[in-house]
Amino acid sequence: ISTLPPAFTDSGNRIVRGGALEIVEPSGLLAKIPERLVWRPAAGAAEYMIIVEGIDPVWTAQTRDTEIKIPAEVAGRMAPGRLYVWRVKAFSAEGTLVAASPAVTISIAR
User: Fold this and answer.
1) Whether the Cβ atoms of residue 90 and residue 100 lie closer than 8 Å to each other
2) Which of these, 10, 32, 42, 53, is most buried using a 10 Å CB contact count?
């Protein structure tokens, strides 16, 4: 039995050890553009990086909280019928990646 935490790939080329970070909301087909992104806390995390793809340019942000409000400027670039993918990475106070979420797809209904 391994006592190592799960392995995941960071940036597609490096395997690191860490935990899985759970997304709370939103996911799937949404009636409107979401106001915020929410996830569960990760053990040892001091800061979270949020990445939203499908918006041009890709939106990234950092926070110490387990949720972040989507700025009006970013929400204004989200359109009904398009797919967006978001994920969260958790970092320790020293800057070490300690957990990552799976990619979650959302789309806004037309």
Assistant:
1) yes
2) 42
With a CB cutoff of 8 Å and minimum separation 6, the contacts of 39 are 21, 22, 23, 24, 48, 66, 67, 88, 101
Amino acid identity of residue 17, one-letter, is R
pLDDT digits (tens, 9 = 90+) for 1-35: 434 444 544 544 454 567 889 999 999 999 999 99
Range 56-63 contact pairs with CB under 8 angstroms and sequence separation of 24 or more: none
Cis before residue 57, ω within 30 degrees of 0? Answer: yes
Query: pTM (2 decimals)?
Result: 0.83
Distances (CA, A) of 21 to 5, 36, 68: 12, 17, 15
* C-beta neighbour count of 106 within 10 angstroms: 21
